[in-house]
Every structure is written in C-alpha cells, then in structure tokens.
Design brief:
By secondary structure, the chain is mainly alpha-helical. The protein has 3 helices and no strands. The mean pLDDT is 93. This is Mobilization protein.
Length: 93
C-alpha cells in the first residue's frame, strides 16, 4: 500500500468515525426533544385537568366540547370515554 492509499484509508476511517459521532449526537438530540415534548404535554394536561376541576358548569361543558372536537384517535377517544367519531365517507367500516 502506498503512502497516498494509506492516507486515503485513514481519512475514510476518520470520516466514518465522524459520521458515527454525528448520528449518535442526532439521536441524543431527538431523544432530548421527545422527552421535553412529553414533559410539556404532561404539564399542559395537568393544568387543563386543574382548570376542569375548578370550572363552572358552563365552562366545563365548553372545555368538554373543546376536548371532544380535538381528540381524533379512536383509541384515545375510547380511553377518555368519548363517543366514537362518525366514519368518514371514504373509510371502510
């Protein structure tokens, strides 16, 4: 192997190592962002539940309509005791 080919091989190895470090750093950043997003949702949910507990009956109905309007996943609706949404015209029954 010539000096040039050794240098090329060494540079390739350094590039692969740098790419691996980059991929790892990107994964850690995604993990951190997911964790922050989960925490944000948890805090917002707790604040919403506290507001529901203290709301007047008419405000509670308004908040319940808000939730009913914005929760679309069938499993989430079932978990929360909401009525299933009507099937869209294009959906199979």
């Amino acid at each position: 192997m010539t000096d040039r080919s050794k240098r090329v091989e060494m540079l390739r190895e350094k590039l692969e190592q740098a790419q691996a470090r980059l991929k790892s750093a990107e994964g850690e950043e995604k993990k951190r962002q997911r964790k922050e997003d989960d925490r944000r949702k948890y805090i917002h949910g707790g604040a919403f539940l506290a507001a529901m507990a203290k709301a007047s009956p008419e405000d509670r109905k308004r908040l319940e309509r808000f939730i009913d309007k914005h929760i679309n996943r069938p499993t989430d609706r079932k978990f929360l005791g909401l009525e299933p949404l009507p099937a869209s015209p294009g959906e199979k029954q």
